[in-house]
Amino acid sequence: MASSSSKIQRTIARQQEKISEGQYYEAHQQLRVIASRYVKQENWVAATDILHGGALALLEAGQGGSGGDLAVFLVDVYRKSKQEYEAGPRGELFLFFYLVTISILRAFPRAEPTKKKFVDDVVAWSSTASEHPQGDPQLHHVAGSIFAQECEPYEAERHLALGTKDSPEQLAGVEYDWYSQDESHTAPLYAARAIFPYLLTGNLRSASKAHLIFTSRLSTYNKSLSVQEVSSKSSDMRVYPSLPLLNFLGLLLLAIQRGSSDLYKQLAKHYAPHVKEVGVWDDALAQIGETYFGIRIPQQGNPLFDMMGSMMGFGGSPKPKEKPKSAEVPTPPVADVD
Asked: What is the pLDDT of residues 110-123, one digit of tens each?
């Protein structure tokens, strides 16, 4: 085993030397041939080591296409290995593949097209080799966080919505940062982009956390925004007189927590004119009404899959002219509230 490992390391070192000399095509082709040989031998660890080392070397040399090709080939090795992708103390293969995947993902240059294919492929593989039919949550979280840092909000949304318990903070940050470049009255539209995905997947806790983080930042960074604290024996809530739809979102979460279909119906009726102005919340709210309150509403298609697939309709506003400059929430200028 030690001899085999040394042989692999020497092979990787030779190809890294070629890459450092600018012989990218030759190194790429030889790495592919060597990895294919190990795949035929069903030596999955050796094939993974070769592709991992080669992909990293090429990506770090700025060869996104060639490095990305080896990364995608690596996912094919995962599939062919037919090993279960397990987390926990028994999941040695999980840990090995996970660390390899994350190191490659972080090495991709920004805007490299094969990065999205690599992420989609590895998430799709994890969905068939694990107990998570929508893909491993930790992979979603890491991928979403990287896309957020690289100012790719739509890709960040897709993955953070299916991530871990830490994802709501990231997603709320992405949406607030995006909102800070838009008009002050659009805050509820961006808040909804962080809340609806979690509600549509039955994750009330994450939806509530995203709402709390978004509204806390909204209050902190917009000192001129009028906010009223409303308290009762069972709950506390912030009310925004100038942002009725933001109040609707908070009350919607409260109605779900209480399991009160009557409260939901009252909210739907009271805020109907405002929701109508948004224009694209209807399907999401119909699904929420059915999921949490048993209110069957005739629908066309499947809004859950449609919206989770595109992640384009939650905000209800056109695309901002620019993507966020940073995934970390800056301190924006105080916004004037209509």
From this structure: 889 999 999 999 99
CB environment 49-78: b (16+ within 10 A), e (fewer): bbbbbbbbbbbebebbebbbbbbbbbbebb
**What is the three-class DSSP state of 231?**
strand
pLDDT at 327: 35
Give the pair of three-digit tokens for residue 289: 């009404």
The percentage of the chain sitting over the pLDDT mark of 90, rounded to a whole number, equals 64
Q: Do the Cβ atoms of 336 and 224 come closer than 8 Å? A: yes
d(CA 88, CA 25): 39
Q: Around Cβ 96, how many Cβ atoms within 10 Å?
A: 16
H or E element that contains 228: strand 228-231
Predicted local confidence at residue 227, as pLDDT: 82
DSSP 30-85: HHHHHHHHHHHTT-HHHHHHHHHHHHHHHHHTT-HHHHHHHHHHHHHHHHHHT---
Please list the residues that pair with 238 across neighbouring strands. Answer: 229
